[in-house]
Amino acid sequence: MTVRKLGLALGLAAAAGLGAGAAQAEPLKIGIIESLSGSQTSTGRLFATAAEYVVDQINADGGFNGEPIEVIEYDNAGGTTGAADKFKQAVADGVHIVLQGASSAIAGQVTEDVRKHNIRNPGNELMYINLGAEALALTGEKCHFYQFRFTTTAPMRVNAMVDAMKEAGDLGTKVYSINQNYSWGRDMEDAIKAAADRGDYEVVDTVLHEVNKIQDFSPFVAKIKDAGPDTVMTGNWSNDLLLLMKAAGDAGLDVRFGTTFLDQVGNIANAGDTALGHYVAHPYNIAADDSDFAENYKAATGHYPVYIEPQTVNAIRTLGEALKTVDFGGGDVSVTEIAKAMENASIETPLGPITVRKDDHQAVLPVVVSKVVKDPKYPVDGTDLGFGVVKVVPGEDAIYEAQESCEMDRPS
Amino acid sequence: MLARIVTIAAILVVLVAVPPLLDIGWQNAMTNMLIASLFAVAFNLLIGQAGLLSFGHAAFFGVGAFATLHLMVVIEDGGLAFPTPLLPLAGAAGGFVIGAFAGYFATMRSGVYFALVTLAIAELFHSLAPHWDGLFGGEAGLSSMRMPWGGLIYGSPLEVYYLALGWTVLSVFLLWAYTRTPFGRLTLALRDNEQRVRFMGYNAHSTKVIIFAVSAMFSGVAGALLAISNETANYTLFSTHVSAQVVLHTFVGGSTVFFGPVIGASVFTLFAFFVSDVTRSWLLYQGLIFVLVMLYAPHGIGGLVDAHRRHWSQLRWSELAPAYGLAALSGLALSGATIFLVETFEVLFSPEYAAARRRADGAWPPFELFGLDWQAFGILTWAVPVLLAAAGLLLLPHARRALRQAWDGVLERTEADRAGSVSPELAGAAER
């Protein structure tokens, strides 16, 4: 009853507004709900910086719907509770599109909040663009029409890494899997096992360990030594990766590491020469990009795009392409129309095309496999080390089957 | 007494009438305020009434949230027709059971050892939860959706707010009523002299277990309300941060006054709501506020309010007003200097400023703060905080003297009034 009254009141107000002959163009509002305080701040900041870089470009070209796109930053303080609070604030502020990337747990909260909001508020939907959370469940059992993921997942990284290392003759026939005991680590372990036929190797042993709690990896290194692998594959990040590689270096372990997050800012400075010759499979490497993107980015932000910044730039560029195909004629923004356009949007990058898979809204994007080398094109962390490109694996070679657990209700 | 009833009634009227006029973000902040208040009051039953300082109350808050969420999942799957507004009963039951169990071990000891046991119990949950997928849903946690019931959809934050308001008012009232029961009196006696309680023939340990379980039960209700509000729960609810936050709220609000924790929880929740998107240093300011309150008002904000209430008839505003004015001026100047410095350093050490410097080939470009442009090495940039700090420091001794004189007068008049009366009972009450 009250809802209907409110609708009537709004209708009258709108009619009065139209009567006055002043149709107000609605600006597109993007909310970045990121970890801008707490332990994940450095990563959260990078997501925000990269996203705003592209939005500034779109606005320089005239914005959208006759207005500049507005970006609002929200600090989720690195937790799901904070993210839930800020999501409600974003709804109150009239945000249309939510961006987030650091942490799969927070991504789970945001994507569920968006899904429930859309069920309860038909006609006032929100859209979520996942810039960096890689848990498979997000495009599996948690998938829905208004969520898009523009980063890789464990199978994509592992498939590309296996192809490239095999081609380079660095893979060997025995692979050891060591990962963190939570969804991402388990996704990685499954992907490493699943790619065994593809890479012609056997998985000699697998280990899952506590996340960011272990100070001394030497017992794990001893176990790895006993198994005698040629390659150690790991999805570890931050301290769990650094301490593992350092312990391996100290023990004189002669293996090659295949990693996913070796390019996180500060890792190379920390690991130093220990990192030389080891591999990383990641969504982008500016060394493979001969366009002027890296220089332009540096001119705007003061640093070369690193870690998760290029994939974020590509995600927002894809959004920009989608926006070009919809036209609200200076009226109200329909997020559903934007989401439909996102499904069909694609961009060409210097590394290959990026498209969106309609089944689960996972982006099909090229994966770069790189190796830590001396005197690269773009040295990182103020060292003389950096990432040399080994192989660029096209999106269609790295992508995996859409998960059966994804049941997407599409708006008509 | 009448004044108190009028005050509470007025606050309740505001709490009921105002939220529909606010936007969703505000409504959600108000809901969080209620949840934090209930949690702090429940926690304060232990420290304020029984003198037991728990450092692990996140355990019961989290258990309440998870119990509620499991019930929500069952309802959502159509396995049970349970009324949505009664969901917090699951949190209460979960909190009570786990609280009784944990309390049995924790209350075997008191003081620091008690605090350490509670800390350990919360940490046990915190480390166990991410690995126990069936019960806690791994690190992503559990997620569900509020189901419509009794003609209400429970879809909007406003409906959730009223649900939280109802439960918070009911729970806080029950906790207040508890303090008026003989058992509540026994709780106070435990704090004052456990030996005497034992000598009177009570079993001190089982009494403490019951108190602990009641406190955990209402903490569970608070956790349940958060689960209903966010429709998710994950293991981070068990983190030490949650346990520490409630300690902070309670002490800033004042653990010696029944409604003190409500004040602390409300102040800090609203502080986070307003300040967290304005500055990245908001946690630093929160810490500073806590330290200052502990140093200069050990009984918290509630303690200050209570002191004015008790000495109401002896207060002379002609003396107090100038003293408070001076103190406010001094405080404002010093806060201004602190905020200015912190924000300036935040800008100067930020990656954005480093990038701006690189673009300017190592020069120090001007930066924007409070809507004005400042030079990194400009005279004005550093003169502002220095002058503010100097003004504040100059006023500080005067303010403190004026405050002391004004309150000495109040206490003298109280003494005189008391000497005039012959009731030793009142004297004892005033002592406390």
Strand order of the largest sheet of chain A: 7-6-8-9-10-14-15
Total strands of chain A: 15
Count of DSSP helices of chain A? 14
Give a count of the beta strands of chain B, DSSP E runs of length 2 or more.
4
- Rg of chain A computed from alpha carbons, rounded to a whole number of angstroms: 22 Å
Q: What is the arithmetic mean of pLDDT of chain B?
A: 89
> Main beta sheet of chain B: strand number and arrangement?
2 strands, antiparallel
Order of helices and strands of chain B: HHHHHHEHHHHEHHHHHHEEHH
Pfam families (chain B): BPD_transp_2 (PF02653)
Keywords (chain B): Cell membrane, Membrane, Transmembrane, Transmembrane helix
Organism (chain B): Kaustia mangrovi
GO molecular function, one term (chain B): branched-chain amino acid transmembrane transporter activity
What does this molecule look like?
The complex is a heterodimer of chains A (412) and B (432). Chain A is of the alpha/beta class. Chain A has two domains: 29-152 and 289-364, Response regulator (Rossmann fold), CATH 3.40.50.2300; 154-282 and 366-398, 3-Layer(aba) Sandwich (Rossmann fold), CATH 3.40.50.2300. Helices cover 40% and strands 19% of the residues of chain A. Chain A is built from 14 helices and 15 strands. Chain A has helices at residues 2-19, 41-60, 80-92, 104-120, 154-168, 183-194, 196-199, 218-227, 239-250, 267-271, 293-301, 309-324, 335-344, 395-398, and strands at residues 29-34, 70-75, 97-100, 127-130, 147-149, 174-180, 202-209, 231-234, 256-259, 279-282, 346-349, 352-356, 363-364, 367-374, 385-393. In chain A, the strands form three sheets. Chain A has a seven-stranded mixed β-sheet with strand order 7-6-8-9-10-14-15, sandwiched between helices. A five-stranded parallel β-sheet of chain A has the order 2-1-3-4-5, with helices on both faces. A three-stranded antiparallel β-sheet of chain A has the order 11-12-13. In chain A, strand 11 (346-349) and strand 12 form a beta hairpin. In chain A, helix 3 (80-92) packs parallel to helix 4 and helix 5 (154-168) packs across helix 6. The two termini of chain A are 27 Å apart. The model of chain A is unreliable at 1-22 (pLDDT under 50). Chain B folds into two domains: 14-247, no CATH class; 315-413, no CATH class. The longest helix of chain B has 42 residues, at 379-420. Chain B has a two-stranded antiparallel ribbon. Chain B has a two-stranded antiparallel ribbon with strand order 3-4. Chain B is built from 18 helices and four strands. Residues 426-432 of chain B have low confidence and may be disordered. Chain B has 432 residues and is mainly alpha-helical. Chain B has helices at residues 2-17, 24-50, 58-76, 88-106, 111-128, 133-136, 157-180, 182-192, 194-199, 204-230, 240-253, 260-275, 282-296, 300-310, 317-348, 351-359, 379-420, 424-431; strands spanning 142-143, 232-233, 367-369, 372-374. Classes of the chains: A alpha/beta (412), B mainly alpha (432). The interface between A and B is large, with 40 and 42 residues.
